[in-house]
Design brief:
The chain is mainly α. 74% of the residues lie in helices and 3% in strands. It has helices at residues 3-30, 34-65, 72-97, 123-126, 133-148, 151-158, 161-173, 180-196, 199-209, 213-240, 247-259, 267-275, and strands spanning 112-115, 118-121. The chain has a two-stranded antiparallel sheet.
Length: 277
């Protein structure tokens, strides 16, 4: 496999993931209720809080254990972006839920710990396993994959995370402006997509640049792991929306994702082509 082929396949998987999460969002919209609105929004607010915490811990870890001060400005920039996103969701949540915190333990939904380069789930997140089993399995399997692959393979898998999230943000940005809630969400999501769309392709370019014979030996395992995790993300998002899709529907998407047969939405390939001109 050449570097160009690797880059194209990684981008194609992101585009296929966009198609998959679009179906979940469409199902939420078709079965939308006030309870679903508040629930997914509270969970997303908690996720953004978790992202702030993770980037902060990564910055502290870089200074404390790896003498890598040069990494900190990039992480600080990421924290600032995540704070903007968190505040945006929180503003809509407070207006929608009348100021109350509507989902218990929402701030433990995604809460990670970083020490000496090692990432693990915080005990508070582990304690919530039974509340959100699909979310827990997504992160549990992610950590397993990191341990199973080489450093290059783990980095290739990680290059899909932010891109995978952007797929969901983009699908949410396309929500119709039927009412003030959907309008507010769509407008916020558009700003998040503008902030983050470039991250996935940039990380993929870094992965491609370090591709060598050792990477070639495990590239098919890397592709399989990425597709598996994208399916687990579909399950996670369906759980976040209080399961608007049936188990059979979710499994159908999973089969199409893992086989690579789902028709892609060219979100990332278009972005990459635009950046090249």
């Amino acid at each position: 496999m050449t570097k160009d082929q690797l880059r194209l396949e990684l981008i194609r998987i992101l585009d296929q993931n966009t198609a998959a999460v679009q179906r979940v969002v469409d199902s939420y919209l078709a079965k939308r209720t006030p309870e679903r609105d508040v629930y997914w929004l509270a969970i997303q607010t908690g996720k953004e809080f978790g992202a702030i915490s993770l980037q902060y811990q990564r910055a502290a870890d870089a200074l404390r254990f790896r003498n890598a001060a040069a990494e900190v400005p990039r992480l600080v920039h990421a924290i600032r972006e995540e704070i903007d996103h968190y505040e945006g969701y929180l503003k809509i949540l407070r207006a929608t839920a009348r100021g109350d915190v509507p989902v218990e333990n929402m701030y433990a939904y995604v809460l990670m710990r970083v020490e000496n380069g090692r990432i693990d789930m915080d005990p508070a997140m582990k304690a919530c396993r039974s509340l959100w089993p699909d979310n827990y399995r997504y992160f549990e399997r992610t950590l397993e994959v990191f341990a199973e692959l080489s450093p290059w393979g783990a980095r290739a898998v990680a290059s899909q995370f932010e891109g995978g999230a952007v797929s969901w943000h983009w699908a949410m940005s396309e929500l119709p402006h039927r009412d003030s809630f959907l309008r507010s969400v769509s407008e916020l999501e558009k700003t998040i997509v503008a902030d983050e769309l470039h991250h996935g392709p940039e990380e993929i370019q870094e992965v491609v640049a370090t591709f060598d014979e050792r990477g070639a030996a495990e590239v098919e395992r890397v592709f399989a792991a990425i597709r598996e995790l994208r399916y687990l993300e579909v399950r996670q998002r369906n759980e976040q929306f209080l399961h608007p899709m049936s188990e059979a529907e979710v499994q159908e998407i999973g089969a199409a994702l893992t086989s690579g047969s789902i028709e892609p939405v060219p979100l990332f390939s278009r972005s990459l082509a635009a950046a090249a001109h």
